[in-house]
Amino acid sequence: MQIEFTEPATIELDACPPWRVAIEYYELQLSGLGKKFLIDVTETVELISKYPKLLTQNSEHTRKAVLRKFPYNLIYSILNDKIYIIAVAHQNTAPEYWIDSIRV
Fold this sequence. Notes:
This protein is an alpha+beta fold. The protein is built from three helices and five strands. It is elongated and about 40 Å long.
């Protein structure tokens, strides 16, 4: 299935402070850890692409993929044979901040 990042998720990936701060934080902890964070996100997106309906139902219209090594969830929705990544949410810091920004 084709995957598309919605605007809020795209902003998070490109330059939004939660991502930038997370990458910088992990890099400060250990050199290369920020890169591992991005790899974890990429691998999770690939998993969603291969098995979109296998992952946990989060709400009536969304599903949640938990990153394997970092405390983040990818929130996504399936619509018309397309997967929309809605949010990249830290599990402990406002994990449902994205609810008001859904524009799929």
